[in-house]
Write a structure and sequence with these properties.
about 280 residues, mainly alpha, 15 helices
Length: about 280
Amino acid sequence: MTLLERARTAPVTYGLAALNVIVFVVLEAEHAMIMNMDVGTLLDAGANEPLHVWVGEYWRVLTYMFLHVGWLHLVWNIYASVGFCAAVEGALGRGRFLGVYLLSGIGGGCTSAIFGHAVSAGASGALFGIVGAMLALRRRSLPSFAAFFRDPPTRSILVNIGIWTVIGSTALAMDNAAHFGGLLVGFGATWMMTARRVGVWSAIFGAAFAALLVTAARPWHVPTPGEVKTMTEFAVAYAEGGRGVEQNKARGHRFARKACAAGSATACEIARETNAQ
């Protein structure tokens, strides 16, 4: 089967892969830095980062999944995912597959914002969600959870998840929080979509997902002294430009206001300056 024929059987899978490539090429052409893992470029492009989400840039829990740090990261995610994404698209249909993919990516972005401590980019949160979808579909085909956990294909998937978690915790800097968030959301979304009583499960899933979104936004959060220092540094960097990021006074003002409220005198000064402008 040719690549075009495969794309016709799973258009959403191949469309998402193409979108990731296009975004990468455009960013590389504009910045010529993303291949060097330039954090500033990734943040400007929409990468996920807990403090950026907390100051109000909630869209990052979506946009991060279309960014990749270098060709190797991009190619590996596409190569490793196309096969099982196409299979899940075939099982769920185009619309439901796209829904699971996007919900999983957002769920992974939320858990990264809650539990992560670094800049995050990549489709792996969404892709782990598709793995979760595979598990949900496998469970639907079996009579019980006992049979599910005895099932060799299920065990193989779970072992692979364990292996990648260990690798992500030791050898490579992977965002395991995004992986597990995506995995759970992908399982839950697929379970909901394939349930006989879809209305009931939609209400349960919707409530849980809404709670996840609110928790990622953390409106009640009181920043630690270390976070106040980091927010002040972001405020200075965005207000003045340089330090690896492009000047963005509106963003600098958001950081300055939050850090000022937490007691940073430097941030209060920046907040006054950027507000006047």
